[in-house]
Predict the structure.
Amino acid sequence: MPVASASVSSVSSAASPDSGQEGSPAFSPLYQQIKELLTRSLQGGEWQPGQAIPSEMELAARFRVSQGTVRKAVDELATENLLVRRQGKGTFVASHAEARTQYRFLRLMSDTGGVPGLQRRLIGCRRQRVGADAARALGLRSGDPVVEIRRVLLSSGEASGETPVVLDEILLPGSLFKGLTAEKLSAWKGPMYRLFEAEFGVRMIRAEEKIRAVAADELQARELGVALGAPLLSVERLSFTYGDKPVELRRGLYRTEHHHYRNELN
Amino acid sequence: MPVASASVSSVSSAASPDSGQEGSPAFSPLYQQIKELLTRSLQGGEWQPGQAIPSEMELAARFRVSQGTVRKAVDELATENLLVRRQGKGTFVASHAEARTQYRFLRLMSDTGGVPGLQRRLIGCRRQRVGADAARALGLRSGDPVVEIRRVLLSSGEASGETPVVLDEILLPGSLFKGLTAEKLSAWKGPMYRLFEAEFGVRMIRAEEKIRAVAADELQARELGVALGAPLLSVERLSFTYGDKPVELRRGLYRTEHHHYRNELN
DNA sequence: GAGTGGTCTAGACCACCAC
DNA sequence: TGGTGGTCTAGACCACTCA
């Protein structure tokens, strides 16, 4: 009699050691089912970013399983960065507001070692119709409204004052980001993903990037302060929320004379 | 009385529920100690790549802990790709020979989607003295012997026949790769890391990469078949074996007109 | 001191594999 | 059929946090 939760009673085919009902084709362990249920609660907004979810004991009682089973489910969600465990305090919904997860998608590093201090300069933010390629990536119909943000990130701690390092071009589905304006963007202090999470309820969970070397065109050269044809790192990012739904298409052009993109391979 | 193993009896300060000896400054859970012991056995060559390690029950008996504790240690080593679990068969030492872990450090993808079929062309392989920068990265003394390998990877499935895609420059500590010659390299079929593992007992565990966009110089342009100054992706990789010991410094220059570097952010 | 997550145990049964 | 890893349980105690 596993997972006799009120919310979902049709998960089927549990591996409980006492109940029958085994042998069906789509077998999945109990803790996976719990994980799925927890994910739905996160997705549905039952617990908000930064808030604590019920304790392991409470969840175990709710789902009619042992604490260890809940534990394994929560463990996986924690390694996927959906939850954050804090000993003695509780388990919390991950948020881009925390220092640990701020800028966790930004892999730019200064050649001298540390994380570069970056200032933002907004170039533009306007609503428009999406092109065919971007529509496909974002799962939209060609011509659907999108918000396009263009901005430059400037390295502040350089010897030669402020030099532009990144030119970003960000595309967001208009339906999800209704009140997003240039004013709101420039007024906001802190990570952009924090704004998305707090104002529009859109949390970025994971992302895929395609990286290339390209030659700067005229516009890019001007905005980044490099020569026409100078080599730039092109980082094309597709970000996903809950349920692997794509919600952001971003292209960053990086100057890499004094910075680099850092990656770890495991 | 945990971890009363014959090999190491001085691990100290266990969290066993029955024994005393707690409260010392450097506390580490039992499963971490087990993990450390297993890592040493791997490092010392007690079990070879591809071979099975003792079963969980055997290990539990050896270390005088419960199976669950061994399990947690093995779990972590499996997620770190040092071990591979196979249900019903056993737990095995990870090897670059397996399909799952072949080319797991190569992030190059074809723009059309799949993993590109690549042919190798060896340019050179010679022994020389290491420069200051590379020495620092590899933890060597300036002037120590190193093996330098240069090669080109060519995309085979292209419309325009074979076009060069990657120019690799690989630096290996001479002390570890004594019999490595151009003949051996060209004779070898399969991943290079498989050769390193099988012939020299050097297994790459993880790596760090710094990625930049650079302009092709004259030599690079010729070997990759691009114009002088063309933008290339520079991928500088430092690879590590057991104990986080650096054992390879590699620089790859990628043509990215029809390929890209793929990355996942979590 | 009460409550949280973190570790450890002992024992049961299930899924998978090889002989 | 027996051995392996995989799941699940129930209960104990430890480490941390906060009132």
Notes: The beta strands of chain B are 83-86, 90-93, 108-110, 118-129, 145-155, 163-173, 206-215, 231-241, 245-254, 259-265. DSSP finds seven helices and ten strands in chain B.
